[in-house]
Amino acid sequence: MDGVSFTNLFVSATGTACTWTASADVLWLTNHFPASGTGTAPVVFSVLPNAGPSRTGEVTAAGIVHTVIQSGCEFSLNTNLTTVAVDGVSFTNLFVSATGTACTWTASANVPWLTNLFTASGTGSTPVAFSILPNAGETRTGVVMAADIEHLVIQIGCELTMSPTNSSFTATGGLGGFSVNPNGTACVWTITAPADWITIDSPTNGAGLTVVSYSVQTNTTTLPRTATITVAGVSHVVEQAAAELPPFVQWQLDNFKCTNCPEAATTADPDGDGQDNWAEFLAGFAPTNSASFFQITGLNAEGPDLRVNWLAGGGRTNVVQSTEKLTTNFTDISSLYIIPPGVPVLTNHLHLGGATNHPSHFYRIRLVP
Ligand SMILES: [Ca+2]
């Protein structure tokens, strides 16, 4: 508290001959005057400024104790919390208020990223300016102590947004990419290729909004694979399908769950329908169902014409052929029959004049490669 001269203390005596003395017991009560007197008279004294806590002294006049209580310094801050973004900033909005001009205070920070602290002593609302360095890491906190009062500083850490966060590739591989968008220019990032089948084509480090591009090699293995490209803790997942198996190998696995087992051999006929596995594979039939095989199911005369009925394999293309004599070549007598994928279906073709024009006709169904 600030000092003051105090003039309102009087000694009253019952007579002018009555003498008295005045003194103080502490050094901060000074200039007491007079040191002695007679009769009724003021006792003037000064109170020195108090830069410390509340204190008590005594002025003893005419043997009577007069207690002097001087309040101490008190401080306050206008705010106890500052929150700042990733990038650095100078901060000037913190003020210390003191109860007197004698009240001195200091300010300090407990972390190196709170810099340029204006360490001061002062009175009233005195700003405590400081700088906050850019934050390339995670969210962090520091403390500015001003007049022994804690002021918390929270600086947001770097965060990236990424789009997209995953990509899928066929076994062939190809080019991929994603954008990274940090929340501040202080945010720098680096990328390392997460697997030997991924190559980062764009710069592997950067700052600010950037597009990352990469290449995925062909997957020659029979297993799908996944790798994660990590940028500042944010993941971009790359998935790649397995290499496709040769069609007959896949067909063996689909039908027999094995490739080297006897029942899956090309020449085996496990369902006993007279067509071996290779023939059933080519024509699109089930090798474990004796009713499922490539066959003409009926020849029916319709007046002068003849309808050829046959079971056609799903996903295959057939053409009807005929010949009049087995000693001559078969010739195509229909256009292409393109059978939808799936199970075999009954199909038919009307051979115009097939029933009457010639003494005999032989039919067969040609499988178009
Ligand atoms: Ca068979």
Walk me through the structure.
With 369 residues, the protein is mainly beta. The protein has 4 domains: 67 residues, Sandwich (Immunoglobulin-like); 81 residues, Immunoglobulin-like (Sandwich); 81 residues, Immunoglobulin-like; 118 residues, Sandwich (Immunoglobulin-like). It has 2 helices and 35 strands. The chain has a 4-stranded antiparallel sheet with strand order 5-3-8-9, with no helix packed on it. Strands 11-19-18-14 form a 4-stranded mixed sheet, with no helix packed on it. Strands 20-22-26-24 form a 4-stranded antiparallel sheet, with no helix packed on it. A hairpin with a 2-residue loop joins β29 and β30. The longest helix is centred in the C-terminal third of the chain and has 10 residues. The model has no long low-confidence stretch (mean pLDDT 89).
